[in-house]
Amino acid sequence: MNTMPERIELYRGSITDLDVAAIVNAANETLLGGGGVDGAIHRTAGPKLLEECRTLGGCATGDAKITGGYDLKAKYVIHTVGPVWVDGNSGEAELLESCYRTCFELTDQYDITSIAFPAISTGAFSYPLEEATRIAIGTTWLALEANESIRKVVFACFDKESYECYDRLLQELVR
Ligand code: AR6
Question: What percent of the chain has pLDDT over 90?
């Protein structure tokens, strides 16, 4: 773990290994599973996660819904649906901001003090990494300023490119 400003950490590896109160899933509107981080979370959490997801009636892009974590170390999974990148002029930034903001609203409601995010929308949904990372860090920064009770936010970067991008932008921020 690489500690940046005190409450933000960068982690290289699978989000499913993290011992935090909640991990965020980059899901799709069905909430019924998929590839990437969504697939990894469902595989590790076990079939009860899908059972609970079936009761939720899906989730709109930019919104988030919470479930239990089942066989994960995390008590909760917050499923959010990032935008599919179209051309950058189709509301993508607002929707991605809304994902992070809505996740932080749920941390408030459920007294969650530690949370890990994957790089939402930057895989199958093709959001340009640097722009997405600026939104992830910016919305997190505002949430941490507004809410003293969040002790730790982890950005889980699965690949070297994401890790290096988050690392660089976080360093810029603290400089
Ligand atoms: N831990 C952390 N990050 C991961 C992991 C993992 N185990 N596996 C992949 N990533 P993606 P999206 C990274 O495609 O772009 C799904 O099928 C990955 O390297 O998982 O929001 C859903 O069901 C990338 O940096 O999510 C949706 O249909 C980041 O997670 C769709 O993909 C996001 O990649 C959502 O696409």
Answer: 94
**DSSP 8-state class, residue 16:** G
| Residue 37 Cα to chain centre, angstroms | 10
> pLDDT tens for residues 47-61?
999 999 999 999 999
* Residue 15 beta carbon below 6 angstroms from any ligand 1 atom: yes
Q: Ligand 1 mean position to 85 CA, how many Å?
A: 14
Catalytic annotation, residues: 38
pLDDT band at 5 (very low <50, low <70, confident <90, very high): confident
Q: How far is the CA of 14 from the centre of ligand 1 (A)?
A: 10
Burial of residue 37, with CB atoms counted within 10 A of its CB: 0-12 exposed, 13-18 middle, 19 or more buried: buried
Q: State whether the Cα torsion 71-68-121-28 is positive or negative.
A: positive
| 93 in Cβ contact with 132 (< 8 Å) | no
